[in-house]
Fold each of these.
Amino acid sequence: MTSKPDHEAGANLPYGRHSVDEEDVSEVVRVLSGDWLTTGPEIRRFEQALEEFLDVPHCVAVSSGTAALHCAMQACDVGPGDEVLVPALTFAASANAALYVGATPIFVDVEPDTLLVDVASVSERITERTKAIVAVDYAGQMADYDGLNQIARERGIAIVADRCHSIGARHARMSTGSIATASAFSFHPVKHITSGEGGVVALADPERAAAARRFRNHGITTDHRERDRLVTHSYDMVDLGYNYRLTDLQAALGRSQLRRLPGWLARRREIAARYDTMFAGMPWLVPLSKRVDRDHAYHIYVVALKLDRLTCDRDKIFEELRANGIGANVHYVPVYLHSFYRKRLGCQPGLCPVAEVEYRRILTLPLYPAMTESDIERVVATVDRICRKYSCD
Ligand SMILES: *Cc1c(COP(=O)(O)O)cnc(C)c1O
């Protein structure tokens, strides 16, 4: 007999989980037996579906969210000598993209209750070398694009929106194309919809969109299919680009998934509202704040532990949750505390004090559309039982 964790009640609940149905499978199989496995008609169909869903003039599908961020930096003419402001609490890729184009990421702090980029910290750290601001829609809630645009517009600074958490969230007045110069989305399996790996850059400006299109294909002006159509073999490489192409198989999967996104968003919001209600009375933690004027797509559900009410640290609660089948996680360690950033940029603890304090008390709890009411209750009951065990009172 194997020993089970005490109170074991069912299978492990991951913090996120993709969902692929029969229709997704048959879409991929259809493409697999067709003429184009990559750079074929599925790419444009997926892009058009995204342009419609996101209400943006141009979508450029690429091989990952990270590639989308790199393309966005390029499309915003960010380069050597430039500074890019990046919130400290995000996935490393948000900052890495600035380094890819030879710019320097300058880390800015976050608001303690939403973990969204703090506009005051942005104002403080702007210099005449600031070329772009990366806005991260942390957890799925829109960043303060009104505040950011006010600062950016008057100085001609680009906004690169890292919207890998927030597909489906909308700004009350501005469109996807107007909140940011370029926006990056990811279709990694842990995100709202997946294409296996994949991403998209969304932009309003046709020239920047053309630059992003070239960038994903080695900096070449036409693709293979266009040359076939024009009956020509010649092409020109005008910039240094990469192979960031998405395959047609992936595009077909992504477009199929997109059809279910509205339903999934509704379910994510429902689950988050259930959590909010059930956690409201608990003295040991507080869910992140939701701004009333802001939309939220709930990529992840994050709570902050009140460490002064507990006799242990966050990692102890994390370990106990994992031991009880609850797939808790932590998003994220402040990027500049990674050893690479300490070495490369000489970053030291203390750079973004709010991010560092909040990092030590945040936990991401399971949230995905297929969760049942009893899954939700099990998460809340397990959190309650573990916190009770380490309660100061
Ligand atoms: C997932 C994610 C990325 C990177 O996306 P990939 O598709 O994995 O390359 C970048 N930024 C944030 C905030 C993310 O969550």
Note: The chain has two domains: 22-258, 261-389.
Amino acid sequence: MKEFSNEYREEMRQAVSLQSEQTYRNSFNIKINLPENLQLLDKISWNFFWSWQPDGVELFRELDPALWEKCEQNPRLFLRNIKQLRLWQKSTDSEYVAKIEKFNAKLEQYAAQKPQDFGKISTENPVAYFCAEYGVHNSLPNYSGGLGILAGDHLKSASDLNIPLVAVGLLYRYGYFRQKIGHDGWQQEKYNDVFESEFALTPVLDETGERIHTTVHIRGREVLVQAWKAQIGRIPLYLLDTNVPQNIEVDRYITGHLYGGDTETRIVQEKVLGLGGVRLLRKLNIHPSVFHLNEGHSAFLTLQLTAEYLEKNPEATFEEASAKVREQCVFTTHTPVSAGNDVFPPDVLRGCFGNRLIGALKITDEEFLSLGRTNPDDTKEWFGMTPLAIRMCRSANGVSEKHGEVSRELWLSMFPEGTDVSDVPITHITNGVHAPTWIAPVFQELYEKHIGADWNELIKDEKAWTEAIDQIPDEEIWKTHLTLKHLLVAFIRQRTLAKETGSQDTINEHEDTRRLFDANVLTIGFARRVAAYKRWNLLLSDLERLLKLVDDAERPVQFVFAGKAHPQDRVGKHILQQLMSINHDSNWQKRAVFIEDYDQEVARFLVQGVDVWMNVPRRPMEASGTSGQKAAMNGGLNFSILDGWWIEGYNEINGFAIGDLSEEDDETMDRKDGEALYEVLETQVIPAYYETDENGLRKEWIRRMKNSLATLTPQFSSDRMVKDYFEKIYC
Ligand SMILES: *Cc1c(COP(=O)(O)O)cnc(C)c1O
């Protein structure tokens, strides 16, 4: 099933074998033969607005549910492949046609509302949001994980809140890898070629209809950069790439893989994003009042802005110019983990920058390299994108209260000696998630019924929201949750079956998939990147105790896992292999599954369907985390280490805390947290879940679910987050 896109691509390629690949890549407007009264579907497919409206998704799905899944919810691919007969059938279904028209009217009304002007931030001078990855929807696979999903949610909330914002990123020809687990439990990576013409991307053209190109000087050559536009509600997202025929082969691969290349590739990618991104905006006549560097990958843009200023003001010095640039730039750091903070060896970095930009900045090589050091005088220190961003931006923030504190300590050494840690100018805005994207359609229906069509508006009013949630009958909350749990079970069985019939064996090797998973059993989800600090093995630290919980006849527990290890992370791959190798004569085979290829779609089923969402990072490495927020918005209870967002979210009723906030060495912490994990599971989570009243209703559990829905939805919605950015950072 997952292979469909590739198979289909092969067919398409053969069908167009007389054309060159380039022609196919550029045949982005292949005419879709829709009956007259279904033509609006084509239009609707070009704006990702449909993807966060349950009735938008349903318009496509309803046409041919099986094909919709096969096309991985990509409406462009779907409309090209759907059978003509099916289209003609549906074109005679007046109810369906009316639904299309109704949805189109909604889209038009939404799109017609022009962004509001807020003083210096206006349509003419918007916020320019820069990020190396965007996870808007699965049908635009241009992200690797949390950072991308967060960026996608940021754009959707900016759109809903009608804030003038444009976004800039890169389009990766091979995206991020697709995961398969081999017979030996070892992760295999596969990259799909992304054909732009299969996605809701339009080429960015000038008034004469010609493609707009900008150039970036790389390895002694002028590399041509082109751009694509994705429409995210009211927000345009511009994605740059170097796969332009006029470029030589090696340059065409600069934007090849997301986080895949060597150091030099990373540097030149980040040059394309930072320098190329600003140049593109200039060509489009967009003059941002604020540049938001979402993570350090785009920090080179500050150098482009400085060079521009110096060109216009030839008498100015670098100091004067960079002071002006600082006024316009704000920076968000997303992790204290060193792998997440790019650093480059000085000679490699210097090699990637010719003399032109450094000359234009009116600084020496040494001064240039010192911009990226925590200690400017330490010539041995590597060039860091985070120090560059902190130095060149007027504001820097972490993504939770705790992460703000951790970042102030981490970057203290950049500031004059004697600076008090509390005076380090790094603040925080806690991450959030986009409620309409992540709240399951059945919950949205429940809210519509009990709260009204504008339930999403009410989330902004914490008190009113809490009262509204309180009034929903317990039985209905539980029924809704159970529906989602059944959907999850079906999803797990179907994925496992697809895998088994694909003649692969997994931890569920010989298990009858029809018996796999049970909607009445306490279900715990654990899905995240497989990285050491996420401590996947904490749960396995006492296997015997774990298997006892799974095997319990009265009160069993089942687990669903998902997550990718970075292709170069052998430690991470070993952790996965260890998990796959649990073979025990027990219910483990029936009650624990690993879902391959964690992505936005898998995440959706998991966060919506589990009872409990577990997170066990080593403190204080989890900057925020957002998947637990998604689970909370669907009535899942968090069962988590007190780190990142959970320190702010936990109130003793709306979930469970593992361990405490005490500071210890890693080894002690791992041991204590492992013990606490089992302890809380055995004495709090399991008893609370299996406690029922005389009618068999899980009163206590539902009380906690409601508290979670009421308290966490407003606090961790990306509407709240974007509003905070707007008021505290952008303005
Ligand atoms: C939400 C999400 C993430 C980020 O969640 P964490 O809690 O930071 O792990 C990563 N990947 C996918 C696919 C997601 O949906």
Note: Residues 145-146, 149, 528, 598-600, 603, 625-628, 630 surround pyridoxal-5'-phosphate (CB under 6 Å).
